[in-house]
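pasting for ref
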Amino acid sequence: MAASEQSTLVVLTTGKEAFVRANAVLQMTLMVRKTGGMAVELLLLGPGVEILRSNQKNSAQFEQQLGELRRAGVRISVCEVSLANLGLTRDQMFDADVVKGGVEVGTRVGQGWNVLTF
């Protein structure tokens, strides 16, 4: 099986309104990367971009989880359109690559990646 067929894009559209679910998705993403031996990317889209906010109640926990993901080799990206729609700016966020979410998903699908959405 080619590497692209084993690669996975995890798209998180769940924000702080569902903390437990967002937390579970971050943990699952880490385990997929650690145990699957495949390229894994995390894309935060729509309300999902809120977990990158550095000034909220659960920021410390999300910052720790995002750091673990990065150390494991997971690329973290955030949709610039979603940021703008929610009135968020880069200086309010933890570090992530800023991308056009729809383009990112389309590119990965075209490359044969698995796409998981939550």
